[in-house]
Specification:
The protein has 420 residues and is an alpha+beta fold. The protein has helices spanning 2-59, 62-82, 233-244, 276-279, 404-417; strands at 87-91, 104-107, 117-118, 131-133, 144-146, 175-177, 188-190, 220-225, 248-253, 267-270, 290-292, 308-310, 314-317, 331-333, 335-336, 340-346, 352-357, 360-369, 385-388, 390-392, 401-402. α3 (233-244) crosses α5. The protein is elongated.
Length: 420
C-alpha cells in the first residue's frame, strides 16, 4: 500500500516536470512567436522601408524634370541657330512686294528688317507699282514686265531693264493681242466699243482692224450701189438720210463688195440701184444688220421670196405704233418719178410686217426679222434684217427719188436694225 503511495509523488513530480516542460515549451513557443512576430514586424518594417525607399527613388523622377530642363536648354540651341546667317532685305519703294536689287541690306538673324523692305531683289523697276515679275500674266507668269493698263499684257516698248511684252498700247485697256477676236485672235488691235472688231484707223503701232466706228461716236454704214457712188438721185436720198443720223457712209459697188466688207460696220444698206445679178446673196451671212431695198435679192438673202414689182408708189402703214413705222400712219407716198414703184411679198412667216401696198395691204412692202429668227427655207438671221421694197427702174437719166415720207420710213428701218 505504501509502495503505491510512494509512487504518487513521483507521478506528481513527473507531472510537475511536464508542467514545467509545458511552461518552458510555452515560453519557448512564446519566445519563438515573439521572435517570429518581431521578424514579421521587422520584415514589414523593412518592406515599408523598402517601399518608402522605392517611393523616394520614384520621387527621383524629378530627375525627369531635370531632363525636361535639359530639353528646355535644347531650345537654347534654336536660339543659337537664330544667330546664324543674316537675311538680305531690299527696298520696296513702290510697295508691289518686290525689292530693288540696288538698295539692299543684310539683317542679322533675330533682328527686325527695316520698314519698307522685302526679302527679295526681283523688281526691275522699283519706281512703278505696275512693273514686277508676273505683272503681265498673259505674256509670262515670271518675267518682269510693265502692265500699266492692267489688261494682263506687257508693254512691248518698256523702259530699260524691263522685259518687253506683247501690248502695242499699254495705256489703253481695250488694246492688246486678241482684243478684236472677230478680226484676229492674235493681232494687237484696239476694240473700244467691245464688239469684237478692231479699230480701222488706230494709233501708230496698233494693227488696223475692220471697225469703222470703234470710238462709238460716228457709226458707219456700208452702202452698196450699182457704181459705188451716190450719183444716182435714189442713192443720194439714202446717203442724205444716213448722214442726217450721223452715219459715216462707205460706198461699195455691187461688183466689188465682198462679205468681209460688212465686218465691223453698224449696218449694211443694199440699194435698189445695185444689180440683183451682181449682188445676189453676197451679204447673206454678214454679221452686220441689213436693210435690203432690192426686192429681187430677198430670196438670195434668205429673207423672203423675190419681190413682185408694182408701179404703185403708196404704202399703207399696218401698225402706226410700231417704231418701224417712223411715226407715219395711213396711206403715204414713199417714192416718186418715172419708173417708181414697189416690191412686195406675202407676209413672211415669223416677220414683223410694217407696210403693205396701198389698196392691197396683204402684199407686204416692209417686213423685219429679229436676229436669230428663222427666215426663208429655215435660214437663221445672223443679225436684224429689214426688207423695204422701194423699186426704181433705171433709165439713161434716172429721176426716181425717195419722198420725205419714204425717207422717214427708211430712217426708222435703219434705227431699228442698229438697235433703236
Amino acid at each position: 500500500m505504501q509502495s503505491g503511495g510512494a509512487d504518487c509523488p513521483a507521478a506528481a513530480s513527473e507531472g510537475a516536470t511536464d508542467s514545467s516542460a509545458e511552461t518552458e515549451a510555452s515560453a519557448s513557443a512564446s519566445e519563438s512567436n515573439s521572435a517570429s512576430d518581431s521578424a514579421t514586424a521587422s520584415d514589414s518594417a523593412n518592406s515599408a522601408s523598402a517601399s518608402d525607399s522605392s517611393t523616394d527613388t520614384d520621387s527621383g523622377t524629378d530627375t525627369d524634370s531635370a531632363s525636361d530642363s535639359n530639353t528646355d536648354s535644347d531650345s537654347n540651341t534654336d536660339s543659337d541657330s537664330d544667330s546664324g546667317e543674316p537675311t538680305t532685305y531690299c527696298d520696296d519703294a513702290d510697295d508691289d512686294g518686290f525689292g530693288d536689287a540696288d538698295n539692299c541690306v543684310d539683317v542679322p538673324a533675330g533682328e527686325d528688317p527695316p520698314d519698307g523692305t522685302v526679302p527679295n531683289d526681283d523688281d526691275c523697276d522699283d519706281g512703278n507699282e505696275d512693273t514686277f515679275p508676273g505683272a503681265a500674266e498673259n505674256d509670262s507668269k515670271d518675267a518682269c514686265m510693265q502692265d500699266e493698263d492692267d489688261d494682263g499684257w506687257g508693254d512691248d516698248d518698256p523702259p530699260d531693264g524691263v522685259d518687253p511684252g506683247s501690248d502695242c498700247d499699254d495705256a489703253d485697256v481695250a488694246t492688246f493681242p486678241g482684243a478684236a477676236e472677230l478680226d484676229s485672235a492674235t493681232e494687237c488691235m484696239q476694240d473700244e466699243d467691245d464688239d469684237g472688231w478692231g479699230d480701222d484707223t488706230p494709233a501708230d503701232g496698233v494693227t488696223p482692224g475692220s471697225d469703222c466706228s470703234d470710238d462709238g461716236v460716228d457709226p458707219c454704214a456700208v452702202l452698196i450701189t450699182q457704181d459705188g457712188t451716190n450719183s444716182n438721185p435714189y442713192d443720194q436720198g439714202l446717203t442724205a438720210a444716213l448722214e442726217l443720223d450721223g452715219f459715216e457712209v462707205l460706198n461699195f459697188a455691187d461688183t466689188d463688195v465682198v462679205l468681209e466688207d460688212g465686218n465691223g460696220v453698224d449696218v449694211v444698206i443694199i440699194s435698189e440701184t445695185s444689180l440683183s445679178t451682181e449682188i445676189a446673196g453676197t451679204m447673206q451671212d454678214t454679221p452686220a444688220p441689213v436693210v435690203c431695198l432690192e426686192g429681187l435679192v430677198w430670196d438670195d438673202m434668205g429673207m423672203a421670196p423675190a419681190g413682185e414689182e408694182t408701179t404703185i408708189d403708196d404704202v399703207t402703214i399696218l401698225d402706226d405704233a410700231d417704231p418701224l413705222a417712223g411715226g407715219l400712219s395711213g396711206d403715204v407716198t414713199v417714192i416718186a418719178g418715172v419708173g417708181a414703184g414697189l416690191f412686195s411679198v406675202p407676209a413672211p412667216a415669223g416677220a414683223t410686217v410694217v407696210a403693205g401696198v396701198s389698196g392691197s395691204p396683204d402684199d407686204i412692202v416692209e417686213f423685219a426679222f429679229e436676229a436669230g429668227a428663222t427666215m426663208l427655207d429655215g435660214f437663221v438671221a445672223p443679225n436684224r434684217r429689214v426688207g423695204l421694197g422701194y423699186d426704181a427702174d433705171q433709165g439713161p437719166n434716172p429721176v426716181v427719188t425717195i419722198t420725205p415720207d419714204g425717207v422717214a420710213l427708211f430712217r426708222a428701218a435703219v434705227a431699228w436694225a442698229t438697235g433703236g
